[in-house]
Amino acid sequence: MSQVTFGTTLGGFGAGLVSGPTLCNWAEEIEQLGFDILFYRDHVLWHSPVLDPFTMLGAFAARTTTIKLGTGVLLLPLRNPTLVAKMIGTLDWLSNGRAILGVGVGGEFQKEYEACGVLLRERGARATEGLQVIKALWTDSSATVDGQFLQFENANMAPQPLQKPHPPIWVGGRVDAALKRAGTYGDGWFSYFVTPERFRTSLDKALEYWHQRDESARTTFTGGVVLYFCVAPTYEEAKANALRTLSTEYNQSFDAIVDKYSALGPASECIATIQRYIEAGAQHITLLPAGPSAATMDQLRHIAAELFPHFRS
């Protein structure tokens, strides 16, 4: 089995916003704990506080040296893709080649689409065109785009990112359109709230599109999953913590699904759940602590102490 990478995400604070300096301290410790990737989530408007991912990732880049840094995931339809190309390209330079662009379409909170002046029904088309624009600007010194939303000729964005041919692009989502977008334009697929069984079948669909790409345009393709977790002495205690956190974060009841899509209980039980996703083909696992913000680092310390020796020995 090839080595699986592990990440975590900052930016979901249904139980309370954490100060900027504290987040930067957390980023340093997350790197020291041995995580491979640190993501920052994205919402312009949401049920709970979320900071700007570009600003936060830039701050993390200045405080870390080895951990990869990514948007997890950026709501691409809400932003001009030319500016996204510039900002992620800048993050790649600032971090010495550690940037990952994770993108999705969102839409479950329609108010942020209204506030950004973007039609919800255009989100898929905007995301697809946006990826084409970003890749063109990152790889072509004379990029030309004739799209539905953007048209330009002979554009040269300098400097281009340090990573070649460009920073990895991971596309999030569960529906078939997202899987097609991931396989056609991405270097990976990023999923959440899926069972191991659905993960396997969805990854296969994304890979079908990836195999249809021109061989010269293919890089390696990563299948990743976002998994909420809570380590506690008992399964019941972990479930109660996760249920309270997720219901607050997403402003809806998780009674029927919290244990279906989360790793809960003592560390050994969490690891057993993670193992099922790896056996289903996951090459990357992003672990999100499902508990109060104040407990974030304790949860990450606990899982790291058990997780990394188990999977990296």
Number of domains: 1
Query: How many E-type strands?
Result: 12
The CATH homologous superfamily is called: Luciferase-like domain
Summed over residues and divided by their number, the pLDDT gives a mean of 94
Q: Hey, roughly how much beta strand do the residues contain?
A: 15-25%
Sketch the topology as an H/E string, one letter per element.
EHEHEEHEHHEEEHEHEHEHEH
Largest sheet: 8 strands, parallel, barrel
Query: What's the tally of helices?
Result: 10
Uncertain parts: none
Give the helix proportion (percent range): 40-55%
Strand order of the largest sheet: 1-2-3-5-8-9-10-12
Shape: globular
For the record, give the distance between the C-alpha atoms at the N and C termini, rounded to a whole number. Answer: 12 Å
Annotated CATH architecture: Alpha-Beta Barrel
Our Rg estimate from Cα atoms comes to: 19 Å
Q: What name does CATH use for the topology?
A: TIM Barrel
Structural class: alpha/beta
CATH class: Alpha Beta
Features:
alpha/beta; TIM Barrel; eight-stranded parallel barrel; two-stranded antiparallel sheet; 12 strands; 19% strand
What is this entry, summarized?
The protein is an alpha/beta fold and 313 residues long. The protein has helices at 20-33, 53-63, 81-94, 110-116, 123-139, 176-185, 196-211, 235-250, 267-279, 296-312, and strands at residues 5-10, 37-40, 68-71, 74-75, 99-104, 143-146, 151-155, 169-172, 188-192, 222-231, 262-265, 284-289. It has 10 helices and 12 strands.
